[in-house]
Amino acid sequence: MGPMNLYFDVRDIFRAPRLALSGKKIWTMMQATYVGYVIYCIFSYFALMAQGGTFGDAWENFGIIPPPVALQTVIMGIEETGWGATILSVMGILGGLICLVLGATAVARITYKQLKGDEFYSSRDAWKFVKKHWHAPVFTHLSIIIIAAFFVIMAIIFALIGKIPYLGELFFGIPYLLWFAGSVFVVYTMVVLMISTFFTHAIVGAMEEDTMGAVFQIYSITWSQIWRVLLYLPLIYGLVAIGTVVFYFFMTEGYNLVNSVFGKDWLMGDKLARMIGWVVGDTFMAGPASLMNWQAPEASFWLYGPEGTMEYIGGAFIAISLFVIFWAILSYALCIEVAGQTIALVILKKRSDDDNLLERKDEEELEAEEEAEEWSAEVKSEDDEKEDDSEDKESSESEDSSSDTEEEESSPD
Fold this sequence. Notes:
Strand content: under 5%
Radius of gyration: 32 Å
Distance between the termini: 77 Å
Number of strands: 0
Helix content: over 70%
Largest sheet: none
Number of helices: 16
């Protein structure tokens, strides 16, 4: 299949919800966000315990969504929360964000390959790509921060020189335009840093850039296409909201239909009501179910909990299943965002540099061509060897036949 036919304008952004509605994209994002969530929870619980509590108390108070101690530090101060708890919390947040960025890069890669017409590019292929290019989406933001920090540190050094009597006034006043230009560049770099949070994963996934290449591309997009960026981003997040609501509607109606059918009195009846009531009321799914407005059957409000071990086991599997559905809804929202940003990047590169990314040969295609050339060379060498062997065999047979002829002629009658 050939590349997808795009208009290379704002109309293409509306494809994002449809492109995001893909099992392999949602599954890829679920994998990344779940690992990030586990890392965040582990460090967050350690941070809460570092403040003097126990794991049981933290679980009883916060369940599966522990609060970030780092946020408490910002509000209350480091003296209240402690250095150890704050550092652990920051490590958990960074670990979760790194997993999210890597997952977004994998989904961007799948989206880009789909735009090129490759519908068979799998989640495993995307993770192989991320494993090879993981440093770019992780360190691009850090590189931009270092660039801004360098100018700020230099400004502080020059300001200290400006404190020198008599000479300092001249040192500050004469090159004032230079200090002003540097400060404007720092402000511009902060804008670039904000833009990088939206497009770095798409740049790496579609353009296969390294860290410095991604930094250059973000500066270029911010400078030449800022108005399109400001137009596309609100549109993308509007589509995220609409697409997520529609997806949530179908998931919720499916949940209600299952309860309605299986909960008939002549089917599971009170048994289902007890199990669902326990799942959405007393398990780790109580919070997400309340957020999703997934209610239990009405009978469960006056029934007690599950009766017997098997109802508890069945309820546990229901809780896990509902958690997976809840996670799929969140992952689909993130997939819409990433798909929209990847499409936007393709449009921006076409508009700014007349560079159609869909016509480029990516590294997998180049590797496939190299493998095909190597294979054809091997086949050709094998054919040449066979031809040489056949020629040698023919020559040896002709020599044998000629020697036999000579022997017959030389023998007496």
